[in-house]
């Protein structure tokens, strides 16, 4: 028995040694003798590994038949099977990331062939970032691309700017092109919305910044172009992927208004009436100089009602999608189904979206392609739209809740709603919780994008393509305002005769026909690419609105139940025709020159002003390909490029060039007669807004592309700016659309991408920063825009200043004593303890002439930082974005700092001036009647720094490989947090807020927008 055991152990030992062998080898660069030290050598499926030494050599123990994975930053990964050899010689090829294909205007180009300023983001590179819309994934990813989440309203798209604002009043949103189809919205209510495209449908995202890159889109490219390429089928087996996440949203504590609670408010109001009794001889209705009972004993109150929290909730969010892709030599197809449901953090709000996309291409012969892409979307908005198609219906609720009395409960003792939230002496306010819970505003959208094309290649290099696209939008809006509905100054219930409902139907469509011919040819080292084309587009809209009043009860709120109805309808249309051409030439893929030209004709201008031409020219030089350039130096790639070109803007009303009529009544022979009168005064001399832009850039790769750096400097000059120009009231009209002047924009963009670690542990960093500034050079008649009234006129645009700077009084504190009052200039109502403003014009009097510029609204620079980590099957991504140098005017302070005892206000108002012996902190005036108005006018005490650093996203994932699951290629499980942290001195909820969004002349104001939530998501990506 012992002999048998010994024999068994000897055989076992021999078998064990037979299972492993030691492989040695050397790794070098290509066919050269350059040794590659630090190369990772790993056994596929096993832990650990080795690195090559300074001579490029390695030794590793493997089992026969094992596969070695050889990888090095900047080189293509190689796999070698161990099949008996003992010595390996491995040559790695460099990865030329300049050969990457990028979607540009009317085609695709290799990255190294592009001479314009273009940035590309692949969906695969941000797949680890979970977001409710694709633009959120891009936050902080592209230099010069500013993405602001101005509202947390469900389904709300982000505000997008490329290189800052480029127009006064003709829009600043970039053109969005999806699979070659422009869908950008305009001031007349177009259908473009990046938010309507689910992230799971997108394959890549190109940002075109300079004129060389955008000029082929002519009159719609002044604000840059974003080109989205959706997923298509690939040749190979059918693949199925499913993505799902579920999450919870809540409003962070940071940024919530620091309001007085019930005891603090009662204490403030007690002091308010004590001061009125002392200084104003105030008496109650019974003629007694007594503090009102509600405020006489503040100790009876605790925290009271936090109205801001009452209207908020923790809200769920969910998203599910399935994509099926297949392809062969004849047919390729990709189909995505998506369901998205987001409840709002504001009670009784939310959005649901059902979307479908099918991209198909059929190749009946090698020289012909037929394509059909269909993308319908159905969206239901619940209480996220207001009384018309353009306003935010929740702003009044948020602002109203902030100033409601904390002494009042939302509910009566019997559980019914308190109709009013007003304490003694306060302004009459409705119960905003009741308002929001009863609100019935619903919008149903059906949006259909479709395009079909035929592309032929009759001879090698010659491609002719005809594409027909359609864009259809149908909107139905219905709202009801019952007896429960109240407004500022008019709490419910309202009489049945005042109940109302509105029903609005809006339909718009656009068709686009594009015919292009593209010819590419190489003659030795000379390469030529020529494109010519003709496009024609027509957009039409019609809408109808019916209003009903006087409903018998709140249970029946359809228009048919109204006692009185009225209605309106209108229609509009515009057309755009264009010819375009492009010539790209390069020599040895080293010297590049490109020229483009587009001529647009727009129906929006007068007969003699409808056509404009937009050319561009650009050049590039790949200096690193020169013979004199060191081949083994620190710099592995160097390219210089420059461009100059023109783009245009026709983003104005469809009929602003002509005078239009509208129905008007007049008296004739003692009777009212229906007639027509001029409604809008036209301007037949209106012409194109034009931007001339210069761009100089450099692209550098270091250490065999381990570090990639890009820099751009640009200058843009916009002339003939389109804006409604005020005209004398004696004309009978307030404004006329005009070309009002010129302004200039300039800036720098810098981005760097580094591959810090490879192997089991990977770490990549992407950093970018962009500086931007502007200056108004001229305005029509040198007349400033805005800042002409004392209330609700927060911005001014003037020659020598930036667009839309904040404008108002400079707050200097309070007149602390009689000496201050005698020393400093005064306003008509000034007294000891009242607000003191700066005497800007030094005339020893405070009046409207002392209003001045008090803050820039565009940041000095924006930046983004992304770190992506990986360890085996784990991945971690952290995205940071921020801005520096802008100011925000928190116009909520007009109410939250109101000292007239009519609203709840912020805690800092407790430090008000009450007497020379009790002067407070010197920053809050007294409550003396008829002296508080100046403090409520636009002034610098409402202006705060808009600087912030935001941790936009943190995502942690784990991927289960194909070997672990049958029938499944991979499963990735993840947890993600959006809007994680916000570091800012801004006291408001959201420093990205901008009430006017696309209008730069009124930028940088916060008037109580929908709160932006933090979201925690858990999800899975499954590939079959």
- Please identify the top-level CATH class of the domain at 2-95: Mainly Beta
- How many individual helices? 11
Mean pLDDT: 86
Largest sheet: 22 strands, antiparallel, barrel
Radius of gyration: 33 Å
CATH architecture type of the domain at 2-95: Sandwich
Number of strands: 50
Which structural category fits the helices and strands? Answer: mainly beta
Q: Say what oligomer this is.
A: single chain
Which band does the percent of strand residues land in?
over 45%
CATH topology tier name of the domain at 2-95: Immunoglobulin-like
User: How would you name the CATH homologous superfamily of the domain at 2-95?
Assistant: Carboxypeptidase-like, regulatory domain
Q: Which geometry do the CA atoms define?
A: globular
């Amino acid at each position: 028995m012992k002999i048998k055991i010994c024999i068994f152990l000897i055989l076992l030992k021999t078998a064990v040694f037979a299972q492993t062998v030691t492989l040695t080898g050397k790794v070098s660069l290509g066919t050269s003798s350059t040794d590659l030290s630090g190369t990772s050598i790993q056994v596929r499926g096993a832990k650990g590994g080795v690195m090559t030494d300074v001579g490029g050599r390695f030794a590793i123990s493997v089992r026969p038949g094992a596969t070695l994975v050889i990888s090095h930053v900047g080189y293509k990964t190689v796999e070698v099977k161990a099949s008996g050899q003992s010595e390996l010689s491995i040559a790695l090829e460099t990865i030329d990331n300049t050969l990457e294909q990028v979607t540009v205007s009317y085609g695709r180009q290799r990255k190294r062939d592009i001479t314009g300023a273009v940035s590309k983001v692949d969906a695969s590179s941000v797949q680890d970032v979970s977001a409710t819309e694709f633009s959120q994934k891009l936050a902080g990813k592209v230099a010069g691309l500013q993405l602001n989440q101005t509202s947390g309203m469900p389904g709300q798209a982000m505000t997008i700017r490329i290189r800052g604002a480029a127009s006064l009043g003709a829009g600043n949103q970039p053109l969005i092109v999806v699979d070659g189809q422009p869908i950008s919205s305009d001031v007349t209510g177009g259908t473009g919305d990046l938010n309507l495209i689910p992230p799971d449908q997108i394959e890549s995202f190109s940002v075109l910044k300079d004129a060389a890159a955008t000029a082929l889109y002519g009159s719609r490219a002044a604000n840059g172009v974003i080109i989205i390429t959706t997923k298509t089928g690939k040749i190979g087996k059918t693949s199925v992927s499913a993505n799902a996440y579920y999450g919870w949203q809540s409003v962070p504590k940071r940024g919530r208004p620091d309001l007085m609670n019930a005891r603090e408010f009662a204490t403030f109001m007690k002091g308010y009436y004590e001061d009125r009794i002392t200084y104003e001889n105030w008496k109650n209705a019974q003629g007694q100089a007594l503090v009102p009972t509600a405020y006489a004993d503040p100790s009876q109150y605790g925290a009271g009602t936090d109205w801001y929290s009452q209207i908020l909730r923790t809200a769920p969010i969910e998203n599910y999608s399935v994509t099926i892709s297949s392809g062969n030599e004849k047919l390729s197809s990709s189909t995505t189904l998506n369901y998205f449901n987001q409840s709002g953090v504001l009670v009784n709000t939310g959005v649901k979206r059902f979307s479908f996309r099918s991209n198909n291409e059929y190749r009946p012969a090698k020289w012909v392609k037929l394509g059909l892409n269909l993308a319908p979307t159905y969206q239901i908005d619940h209480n996220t739209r207001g009384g018309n198609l353009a306003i935010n219906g929740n702003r009044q609720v948020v602002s109203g809740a902030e100033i409601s009395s904390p002494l009042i409960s939302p509910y009566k003792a019997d559980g019914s709603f308190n109709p009013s939230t007003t304490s003694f002496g306060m302004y009459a306010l409705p119960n905003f919780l009741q308002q929001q819970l009863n609100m019935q505003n619903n919008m149903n959208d059906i949006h259909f994008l479709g395009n079909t094309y035929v592309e032929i290649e009759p001879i090698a290099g010659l491609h002719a393509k005809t594409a027909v696209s359609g864009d259809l939008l149908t909107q139905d809006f219905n709202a009801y305002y019952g007896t429960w509905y109240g407004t500022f100054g008019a709490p419910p219930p309202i009489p049945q005769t005042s109940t109302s409902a509105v029903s609005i139907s809006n339909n718009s469509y656009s068709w686009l026909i594009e015919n292009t011919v593209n010819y590419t040819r190489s003659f030795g080292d000379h390469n030529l690419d020529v494109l010519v084309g003709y496009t024609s587009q027509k957009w039409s809209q019609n809408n109808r609105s019916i209003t009903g009043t006087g409903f018998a009860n709140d249970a029946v709120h359809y228009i048919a139940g109204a006692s009185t109805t009225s209605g309106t309808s209108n229609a509009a249309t515009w057309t755009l025709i264009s010819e375009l051409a492009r010539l790209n030439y390069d020599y040895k893929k080293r010297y590049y020159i490109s020229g483009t030209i587009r001529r647009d004709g727009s129906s929006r201008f007068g007969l003699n002003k409808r056509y404009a031409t937009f050319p561009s020219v650009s050049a590039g030089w790949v200096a690193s390909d020169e013979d004199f350039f060191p081949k083994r130096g620190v710099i592995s790639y160097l390219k210089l490029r420059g461009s100059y070109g023109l783009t245009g803007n026709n983003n104005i009303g469809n009929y602003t060039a002509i005078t239009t009529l509208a129905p008007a009544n007049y008296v004739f022979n003692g009777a009212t007669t229906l007639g027509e009168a001029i409604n809008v005064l036209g301007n037949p001399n209106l012409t194109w807004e034009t931007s001339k832009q210069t761009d100089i850039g450099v692209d550098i790769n270091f250490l065999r592309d381990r570090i990639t750096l890009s820099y751009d400097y640009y200058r843009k000059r916009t002339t003939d700016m389109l804006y409604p120009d005020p005209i004398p009231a004696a004309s009978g009209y307030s404004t006329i659309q005009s070309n009002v002047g010129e302004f200039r924009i300039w800036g720098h963009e810098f981005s760097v991408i580094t591959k810090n670690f490879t192997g089991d542990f990977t770490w990549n960093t992407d950093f970018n920063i962009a500086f931007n500034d502007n200056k108004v050079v001229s305005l029509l008649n040198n007349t400033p825009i805005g800042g002409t009234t004392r209330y609700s006129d927060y911005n001014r645009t003037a020659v020598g200043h930036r667009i839309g700077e904040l404008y108002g009084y400079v707050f200097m504190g309070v007149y602390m004593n009689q000496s201050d009052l005698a020393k400093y200039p005064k306003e008509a109502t000034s007294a000891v303890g009242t607000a003191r403003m700066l005497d800007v014009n030094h005339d020893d009097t405070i009046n409207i002439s002392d209003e001045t510029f008090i803050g820039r609204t565009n940041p000095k620079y924006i930046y983004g930082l992304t770190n992506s980590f990986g360890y085996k099957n784990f991945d971690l991504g952290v995205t940071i974005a921020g801005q520096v140098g802008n100011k925000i005017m928190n116009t909520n302070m007009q109410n939250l700092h109101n000292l007239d005892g009519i609203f709840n206000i912020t805690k800092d108002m407790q430090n008000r001036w009450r007497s020379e012996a009790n002067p407070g902190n010197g920053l809050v005036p007294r409550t003396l009647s008829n002296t508080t108005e100046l403090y409520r006018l636009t002034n610098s005490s409402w202006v705060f720094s808009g600087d912030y650093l935001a941790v936009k996203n943190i995502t942690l994932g784990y991927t289960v490989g194909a070997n672990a699951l049958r029938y499944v290629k991979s499963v990735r499980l993840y947890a993600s947090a959006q809007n994680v942290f916000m570091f800012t001195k801004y006291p408001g909820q959201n420093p990205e807020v901008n009430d006017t969004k696309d209008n730069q002349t009124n930028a940088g104001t916060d008037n109580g927008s929908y709160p932006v939530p933090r979201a925690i998501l858990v999800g899975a990506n499954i590939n079959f």
